[in-house]
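User: Show me sequence and structure for the first protein, then do the same for the second.

Assistant: Starting with the first protein.
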Amino acid sequence: MPRKRKLLAQLSALQSNSSFPPFDALENLNATPDGDSSPKSSKYFAIEKKNSSQLEDDFFNQPCISLAKSFLGQILVRKLPDGRELWGRIVETEAYLGGEDEASHSKGGKQTQRNAAMFMKPGTLYVYQIYGIYFCVNVSSQGEGAAVLLRSLEPLQGLDAMRELRSASKKGPTKLLKDWQLCNGPSKLCQAFGIDKAFDQRDLTQDAAIWMAPGHDLPGEQDVVATTRIGIGNRGEWAQKPLRFYLRGNKFVSVVDKKKEREMAAMGHFSCS
């Protein structure tokens, strides 16, 4: 049975080479023209996929601020139609608390076709467009209309593919992006991971093309900076609330608040470098 021996050899190579399977080998085992991730040609790929870890419903079912902090250090995984997987560690988030939050798309409890995902089960993606060009991705939490914006990722796997996707979104020749430039902002993140409006209302616990995996080096409270959100304009007291969270000292964060970090150091939360 030559085909079976070939598949077993490929599987053995996947397991021995790296904890992150090589792209080409995955494509050979599970290549489908429409990008469907269900196993079409190999039961061995199905076993590999079943064993991969993934954050489930219970993780997402928590209050918005708690979820925004809990996201830090977790891994966003995106499987492209050609089988390649992109991995990024979440290093910056913003919480939008729903009806009471003047900066939220759901302020006043307003529900529209655009923001419907904010009112769906925790773990639902809310993707919206800004400036008619760029996309931002959020994840719904507990609370009516509450969601967490994913602001920045630390790229871990698939950096070449991320560069391809970032370049494809630009017109004309582009400079080669450095690692820290790939996902250091909400729209850059979406470009690098190929996330657009088609991902709106998808469930992170059920979708085959995007999910979250648990991080292995999760931060403590002393590693997290809580500061004001970015680009929300004149929203009164809500513009000053510390609802943006990022990992201190991480070079992949989009905007660092040095003043806040000095204040936290003065209060003994961590040493000031």
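Switching to the second protein now.
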Amino acid sequence: MASEKSKILVVGGTGFLGRHVVAASARLGHPTFALVRDPAPSDPAKAQLLQGFQESGVTLLKGDLYNHGSLVTAVKAADVVVSTLGALQLADQTRLIAAIKETGNVKRFFPSEFGLDVDRTGAVEPAKSIFARKAAIRRAVEASGVPYTYVVAGYFAGFALPSIGQALSRAPPTDKAVVLGDGDAKAVFVEEGDIATYTVLAADDPRAANKTIYIKPPANTLTHNELLALWEKKTGKAFERVYLPEDAVLKQIQESPIPLNIILAIAHAVYVRGEQTGFEIDPAKGVDATDLYPDVKYTTVDEYLNRFL
């Protein structure tokens, strides 16, 4: 008989990635819980999202990251806790760790990660400080003794691909495309629903326990130049490439306001330093998601770009 699927609690489930994790958990047959401050919000879009959760069998648990009692109650309902909290609440995940430690019933914790590997990044400020907060949470999780999985997933497709990889634009290029560096560093682009699927699959997988799971789909690992060439082929239109050397990128990071400076600092790490792909996975510390779950039919970059035609 198949083992019973773990009960999954998602903290930050109404956010950009969190809603996908909630949906994937329910779709894959896990008893799923979402921590929400207000189960009946006045915001119509959020109310509709929560209604959709409930219609798919998700249980809404009223609680707050800053209310320890409610957090403990929610954590008691779960075997696995997945945090998808945003940048402003990363450091406050210590509250979640404390609740998990107190209840003693959680068999796996996924802190909010899903980007670059924060233990091996050389990102410049202001991204450096954000990644330092994520690394500090990793150390806190490890010190707590709670089993964990860290998910490293490259770029969210929904963030990077609408501009065809351009960090300085939110739209596809028309006449020219701005490329950071020489455009030859490999980057990884993963659809948010696929990130969620791999995350949920890892929840009950002993092979992912106390390791970093790297989501690097082969068809989605390509240089910015290759990405632009793919878009040119699809649109039948060529455009000029404007290459920004590293010193110009660094200068622009220093001179840009929030959040553009953060976006550029991350893009510098990816497109100039090549941090998403320029390393080998240490099998003692990490695993490749596409090796663990070869049957997952992920959305390719090629398929994703068709949404913009």
